[in-house]
Amino acid sequence: MEKEDERREREALDRLAEGLGTGSRAAAGLDAVLEALNERRVEILLFEQGLKAPGVVCPNGDWLGSEGSTCPIDGAQLEQRDDIIETAVQLAITQSAEVLPVRYHDNLDGHGSIAAVLRF
Ligand SMILES: [Zn+2]
To answer: Which residue among 13, 35, 69, 76 has its CA within the 20 to 30 Å range from the CA of 104?
Structure first.
């Protein structure tokens, strides 16, 4: 079971590296990943296990980001969250994205500890 998890993680990290290398279908860093989630483009969400970061979320559930005061979609007052990663994971799940806390490899170093493989 563990071997299978490790293989899936390796595969996802390889796709991430390839996407970042060619500048397509990949995002790295909190802002880029949250933007991709807002656009519903995330296929696999990767993050360092235990990662926490503050952020803001629209009460209407249509937008999240690392900072801001009003929602760019509907102008609503954004709510502060101590941990936006948890919100991002929930959003990824509702978008049928795979959520993969990185456990076996260190490849998220230099990618802001969070990254995503994108559908398009
Ligand atoms: Zn909104």
So the answer is: 35
- Ligand 1 center to residue 73 CA distance, Å? 5
Class of domain 2-118: alpha beta
Q: 79-81 and 26-28 as β-strands: parallel, antiparallel, unpaired?
A: unpaired
**Nearest residue to 56 (alpha-carbon basis) of 47, 48, 67, 42:** 67
* 76-110: pLDDT as tens digits: 999 999 999 999 999 999 999 999 999 998 878 77
Distance CA 81, CA 91 (A): 14
Query: Would you say 111 and 33 are in contact if contact means Cβ atoms under 8 Å apart?
Result: no
Euclidean distance between CA atoms 67 and 79, whole angstroms: 10
- In the reported structure, the alpha carbon of residue 119 is separated from the centroid of ligand 1 by a whole-number distance in angstroms of 23
Q: What is the pTM of this model?
A: 0.94
